[in-house]
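Continued from yesterday's entry.
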Amino acid sequence: MPVSDLSIAGAPPVRRALSRGLLWTLVALMAAWSLGPIVWIFISSISVRAELYSVPPHWIPREPTLAPYRTVLFAGEGFRGAAGQAAAELIRAGLVNSLIISTATTLLVMALAPLLGYVFGRIEFPGRRALFYFVLALIALPGWPIIIGLFPMMSSLRLLDTRLGLVLLLFTYRIPFEMWFMTGYFRAVPAEIEDAARVDGCTRLQALYRVTIQMVRPGVVAVSIISFLHSWNFFLVPLIMAYTLRSKPLTVTITEFVGQYFVHWDLMSAATIIAIVPPVVMVILFQRHIVRGLSAGAIR
């Protein structure tokens, strides 16, 4: 076989190898970009405070310790950033507030998003299309101007620095997304199935909960999990609307480790790792439901 034929025959495997190498290089870069900060935070959380200021920095701690975790979970020092409060008190209060706010917001979304999706996806009424697009347009509104307007309103309603106020704000922020998602699910369910249930004696509400909701259950599960994750990670609104431990979530209490003249990097890193654990566990446990719900909604 001529040399030219050999080169032509060998070209596709070379291109495939180059493409595969480029693909894995991009994957490695994306993984390093995503996981690098988390790895560095974990290393900082098990390092003594003196090592965090060493020059040059190093990846492996010379004297690894779990003292920062004991400090933020059980007992610890007070510092200027938290007005002299113990680190453990600060983090425990933030954990409790985050769990309450995220759970309450998720329950509201689970209850109302399917109903709103059903209304816009199934029921005909005057102005339905205009109202639907108006609600969707709320998604595009910038956050800062809305917060500026909401602050005096929340103050007049005495909802500042309350868990109820944060739940209501988070819910109203998330509900357009979840309503849009659920509307697509209900539009994909054949109306004949619901009509058959009503012929068998079900009311519209009974047909909704006994038949239609069962068919869109993957969407409800996906919406609920995503709502919980978003509520757990929310930062901007609580930073402005919550200013005591009565309502500050964990995302905000972590910032208390930043003082005027000193940053407690070890404590802040340990608290950050603790804050990462619940959403990571939830995603691992419900990964199949999230993928199934989102992919089914996309296909439909």
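--- second protein ---
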Amino acid sequence: MTPMEQENFDNRQTALTSAKLALTYVNVTNSAAALERSHLCGATAGLVQSKALAAVALLGAEVSQKDETVSLRLRVSGPVAGVLVENAFGGSLRGYTHNKVLNTLDVREEIADEDALGELAQMSVIRSIPGKTISSAMLDVQPASVKKGLHEYLNRSLQRTAEVEIAAESTVAGVTYAKAFMAELMPDGNAQAFKKLSDKFADSSVLQALTSAQDLTELCALLKIEGYKLNEPQQLQFKCRCSTDRVEAMVSDLPDEDLEDMLKNAQENQIICHMCGTGYRIGKSTLWNVLEKRGHDIDFEEDASYYD
């Protein structure tokens, strides 16, 4: 099934079992596919981006304040160089990989992310609201892996007892699916029940079930998890906070020299949002107005190209 044929909208579902195991399921397939298309990613970068997007969507379950975001960044030794993804309050997802086309890896019959990520990674997770960092953590991950990094962040940095699994697939036609599942033992939870479920993560039963399950109810049925209470699902979507107004505000902060160079540029000036790939045309009248507001009277030669 291609991304365009997906019927289920992206969402996050949570539940608590009678054994006090907190369950979180996310499906970000459509968002990952849209982001891959927006950035013109190759299949390998698209896979890396999809897994990271699923991981940050799991962490986004705890984003509770208006304007709060959680971001996950991996800087890696492999040819993709790195990935940054973000989940904002309300379920908005965005992100990018540093390198988007990996020619030698993208032509392989089976797309995998191990060679793209390499051996070493530095992972950081930041929760913030405008003007304030709520929490931050940084850790080394070896070998480089989104799943391994997320597991170590939860268990080592946050000192929580949790298991995670990420299922994603990308082909030359685009992202096929991107999903993730997390199970966490609550402080008053049943350790034996968690161990039983943890064993299913270890023997790949969870990965197999996650690949085929379309929601948390189906996943629990496949894994024989019983006695749980589902919470209201939350919709997730690829959505960036960039806008024409934000871009023009950024342009208004540029030094005079940069604005003058842009005015003299014979080509159309365009600013690309690195988080979503959207391009914004910057008209020369906009640049001229910024300089005029600063009290500059720059004597350019009379040429219509200076005024759009």
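Confidence is low (pLDDT under 50) at residues 1-6, 301-308. The chain is about 35% helix and 30% strand. Will compare against the first tomorrow.
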